[in-house]
Amino acid sequence: MRLVVASNRLPIVIDRHDGARRIVPGTGGLATALAPILRDRGGLWIGWPGALEGDEPDLEALLADGATQAGYTLKPVMLTQAERDQFYHGFSNEIVWPLFHDLQSRCNFDPSYWSGYGAVNRKFAQVIRENVGRDEFVWVHDYHLMCVGQALREGRWSGRIGFFLHIPFPSLDIYAKLPWRMQLLRAMLAYDAVGFQTERDRRNFMHCVRTLLGDVSTAREGERGIVRVGERRVRAGAYPISIDYQQFAQLADEPEVAERADRLRRDMPCPRIILGLDRLDYTKGIPFRMHAFRNALARYPDLQRQVSLVQVVVPSREDIPMYQNLKAEIEGLVGQINGQYTQSGWVPVHYLYRSLDRPELAAYYRCADVGLITPLKDGMNLVAKEYCACSIDNDSVLILSEFAGAADELGRGALLVNPYDIEGVADAIHRAVTMSDDERRARMRRLRRTIRRHDIFAWVNEFLRESISTEPEHFTPIERQPVAREREAALAWSASLGAAD
Q1: What's this model's pTM, rounded to 2 decimal places?
Q2: CATH fold of 245-453, please?
Q3: Catalytic one among 40, 192, 378, 427?
Q4: C-alpha span between 386 and 366 (Å, rounded)
Q5: Which of 60, 78, 260, 285 is the most exposed place for a label (fewest CB within 10 A)?
Q6: Known active-site residue 166
Q7: What pLDDT digit, counting tens, does each position of 384-436 carry?
Q8: Which of 101, 141, 144, 166 does the annotation list as catalytic?
Q9: What is the DSSP letter of 439?
Q10: Number of neighbouring beta carbons within 10 Å of residue 241
Q11: pLDDT tens digit sequence for 376-386
């Protein structure tokens, strides 16, 4: 059957330059993860194009051009300014995002946000009904659209619907603070299957269901949880998302990327390079990371002139004061560290505030001796996996927050740290920089084997086979398809999707 993806945003951006408009690939972990699947098997992506109703009179033609380039169909869900503000800026990013990342003190529980969230979810459901057959599978993604399944069921939709949550699901004591906790749980149980990044997230969800909903029953079926809602059975499982490992490894081996990586190394005359790469967000722990790096320079003077931190921050939500303040805090810390420790011919922190295209991103991954990825909380963190896939010389070290979902898979090869522990992260930096060549290679080989074995295709197959297919033993796996010449342009366009998680 055709795969239909529904997410908050279409994987494109309408670029306006010198009065001209064109479709360019968007950024984000979801687009990076799913583009190879829809590209290789064909499909339909439903989402908001980023333009408000009436703003783009030629939107249909632009999206048709974007679909030709991407290799799959794009269908827009149009929003008004009020809908965008209440649904996206409001409920999604002022309530769900901080709450599900255990930062409830940052929540704004405005009652109007809930009604706006429901209205937009019903609008998405309507577009699905108008464009999707009931024998097709609809895969709804992430915290923006948790109520789409319920809206479809209320319209007597009988087709199969799956949902995947890309961010963490909180523990009961955190989730219970949500004023609409019961309604949201019931909405999530309208799906046939609900997927989470980690087993911890799945357990948290099942605990909330058992505790807060008295009219459902739960059971265990292998590694999956089962919720019985009347005559329906809802499966809940952990399916850690991954990347197109082969694509990143091949890209890192391209001569252009190798040349860029060599140039980056020449521009930073120190033996070791540490890379931090994050979207601008308070969950990424960038200020804590800066404090830890400064602590490492102070407590381990042998690191001075021997290591530089390259911190790349990808712009995000720049119109929100909280994010403006975070950007100012990061830049202030960069200035303080450089002002205190810079020496002739050596700058401790190199700071970039911009997006990177795919070859440039791979070059930074390849040239970095240490990947420093320390979010305070993360559903998965695909940057960690991309970094390892691009470490084709097997001589790099990954320092990873134990609160990233990726820590469950990568913990045996990475150096796991508590991002709140400034001295602990500093100790890990020193250990990574001074680690023996044999240990570095052994750890990175283990990491790359894990990611290669469980790539993006394995993720999709596992979710569809175990959570959607009524007869898993008869499920036909999705495989990487040979690249035909006529599709090379579409692949090149899709491969330039951004990678900030």
Answers
A1: 0.90
A2: Rossmann fold (3.40.50)
A3: 378
A4: 10
A5: 60
A6: yes
A7: 999 999 999 999 999 999 999 999 999 999 999 999 999 999 999 999 999 99
A8: 166
A9: H
A10: 26
A11: 999 999 999 99
